Amino acid sequence: ETGVTQTPRHLVMGMTNKKSLKCEQHLGHNAMYWYKQSAKKPLELMFVYSLEERVENNSVPSRFSPECPNSSHLFLHLHTLQPEDSALYLCASSLGAGGTYEQYFGPGTRLTVT
Amino acid sequence: GQNIDQPTEMTATEGAIVQINCTYQTSGFNGLFWYQQHAGEAPTFLSYNVLDGLEEKGRFSSFLSRSKGYSYLLLKELQMKDSASYLCAVRDLSNDYKLSFGAGTTVTVRA
């Protein structure tokens, strides 16, 4: 158990659906991240929040919309997705940035867009 | 930006040693991380290097040469449970929050 939980663990949605992914960290960290992991490809950083303020938005399509209501919770709202958006979506958190602060990852949500 | 290369797959025998190389090209280097990811699970932190040299943690060691843009992860006394994907990640000097990952090296340990 890494202290970062994600729900749901699996999600199948049609291209016209709207769904949300939820991430919660129980580590008292100040920064939270969304990554996309596709098969045989590097993890792609999507969004970063530090103390509920977005500090990175990595040219992600607007059909992905993040929300960070407090430093413990992070959401990724999904709408009108494409089949190529099918991937593992990982949430992570860190105490800070720089230095030896490593990121702690959740187990991910396996998303399939049909 | 970052360009990070590591081998796709490696196979080794239980009890042996395996070295996973990672080369990177970066406009600004501010640390290198290694993560382990078992199939279907979250990546977990293994090591961090920011200065040149070797960092040892039990059976795992990580080496960094900043002048060569090169790191390796050394796994000793391999066990079956070490079968996993190993991810190399470089932190960007311009943004402490941003890690750029390699595609990962899948290590298979055989009996």
Describe the structure.
The complex is a heterodimer of chains A (114) and B (111). Chain A has strands at 4-7, 10-13, 18-25, 31-37, 44-50, 53-57, 64-70, 73-79, 87-94, 104-105, 109-113. In chain A, a hairpin with a 2-residue loop joins strand 7 (64-70) and strand 8. With 114 residues, chain A is an all-beta fold. In chain A, the strands form two sheets. In chain A, strands 2, 4, 5, 6, 9, 10 and 11 form a seven-stranded mixed sheet that branches. Chain A has a four-stranded antiparallel sheet with strand order 1-3-8-7, with no helix packed on it. Chain A starts with a strand and ends with a strand. Chain B has strands at 2-5, 9-13, 18-26, 29-37, 44-49, 53-57, 60-65, 70-75, 84-92, 95-101, 105-110. In chain B, strands 2, 4, 5, 9, 10 and 11 form a six-stranded mixed sheet that branches. Chain B has a five-stranded antiparallel sheet with strand order 1-3-8-7-6, with no helix packed on it. Chain B is built from no helices and eleven strands. In chain B, 36% of the residues are buried. The chains are: A mainly beta (114), B mainly beta (111). At the A-B interface, strand 5 and strand 10 of A face strand 4, strand 5, strand 9 and strand 10 of B.
